[in-house]
Specification:
Blueprint lengths: L1 H38 L3 H4 L31 H8 L2 H7 L1 E4 L7 H8 L5 E4 L7 H18 L5 E4 L19 H6 L3 H18 L3 E2 L24 H17 L3 E7 L15 E2 L3 H5 L4 H8 L4 E4 L3 E2 L12 H11 L5 E4 L5 H4 L4 H11 L4 E3 L3 H17 L4 H17 L12 H13 L2
Parallel strand pairs: 1-2, 1-10, 2-3, 3-4, 4-5, 5-7, 6-8, 7-9
Helix pairs in contact: 4-15, 4-16, 5-6, 8-9, 8-17, 9-11, 12-14, 14-15
Length: 440
Amino acid sequence: MKHSNRLSIVFITALMLSLILMSCSNQDTSNSQNNNNGNTSTDSENHASPGSSNGDASEPTVTATPSPSPSPKPTFDPVQQEINSMSIDEKVGQLLIFGVDGTSLSSTAKDMIINNKIGGFILYKENIVNAKQIVDFLNELKQTNNQSNTVPLWLSVDEEGGRVNRLPSEFKKIPTARSIGDKQNANYTNGIGQAIGFALHDLGFNMDFAPDLDINSNPDNPVIGDRSFGTTADRVINQGIEMMKGISSGGVAAVVKHFPGHGDTSVDSHHDLPIVKKTLEQLSQFELLPFEEAIKEDVDAIMVAHLLMLQIDDQHPASISKAVITDLLRKQLSYDGVVITDDMTMGGLMKGNNIGEAAVASILAGSDLILVGHDSSLQLEVLKSLKQAVNSGQISEERLNESVSRILRLKNKYKLSDAAAPQADVDAINKRLQEALNNQ
């Protein structure tokens, strides 16, 4: 009996020990779970509202911080990089296109390139003998520039056809704009433009001051006449824009002229200053229409004439007028391309204006390129005046950079290069011209 009681006591004692051990084990498990729950709290616990309470003290709000988006890489702009590396003298030089003397590289032209960093040249009839001479001359200019400057040269010419013809006698003659316009055949006009562009590019030129978008509305006009495609806005628009497109398709920048319209004048601006009395409303309904269309078609450059637009600016010729260039052409007509003056040595500007001061005024008015076709002393005067204006702050560097940017972007568009050009294939050029002339 005592043995049985002893066993009962042992059994009860063992049972109690087991219960005690199980209780301790459950307590450890509960503590572990509570610890885990504390490390993996729910969103509602972590983002308790400002008025809520978690126990005796509020828990701090925890907000997930999103990973920052990678900053966009700056767009590489080769033109801006080029401008940043240029000196003031180099920038001022890009604003200028000068005429040259003779039929080969002169010491004056060489000095203009090496020491004055001139941005381009124009050849006139007196500078041209034949195809080989043109190529050799232009190659000399390019070679000289290539040795001292990084920006290629504009090598320009006036090739309109008709009486404004710069191609030497070995080439087929190009008809006047009037006779081309009279055909009223867009394909014919475009084809002649392509042939002109092809010929000029093959000879080494990269800019043509053509076509003429003046409407020849005044029969007494001594300077436009058959250089115009016609006497109506529609004729000039339809034919002139096709010529512009044809020339540029040949790899040559086309410069339309003479903004804001030289057609209704009776004075030749080469000799004196023509006065235009039309109101802006009248101009908008007629003379400006071809230029507006050219702007819509992404024209390369626009030449501004030496005309006194009496109802717009009765004090300054258009070529140096802010009212004409900035207010009318750039703002009202929304043109942000290259603007070039007509030759600053023409009587229309020189009578009554100092050429150096006029060049500065033209840049301040909104022009980009100053054309000085003759007389190296006048060219140097323009150069000196522009440098002084920049150095004194009269022309800000921001304004200077604006024009240089437009010029360099146009040079880049046509992939200008100072690499020597091979001799032109005269037969191939004539064949192309003849094919265009036959396509009536």
